[in-house]
Design goal:
98 residues, 2 domains, 5 helices, single chain, mainly alpha
Amino acid sequence: MSAQPVHPQVPRVPRVPRTVDGIADALQGGRRMEFYRELGTAPLDQAEAILRRWWCEAMLDTDPEAEQIRRAAMDGTLPVVTMEDILARRERQGLPLE
């Protein structure tokens, strides 16, 4: 019998690269065009925030458990944590904090 970790290791390479092409490739159809449109019309000082938001959208879109996460969010049963807890966990795992 082998023991499985309670929380699987977070991969060092994200499913969706933090690039314009990586985000666009992960989005489907109309969402991809919406991303390009929003990014293409944004002032330069807002581009990074737009990329960050759409990267989160792309990560959720490509998450194999996305439907369960959406359902739990809608049902009010999605576990929540503070940003302090998230940052501390990421720091312990040696992940970027930005």
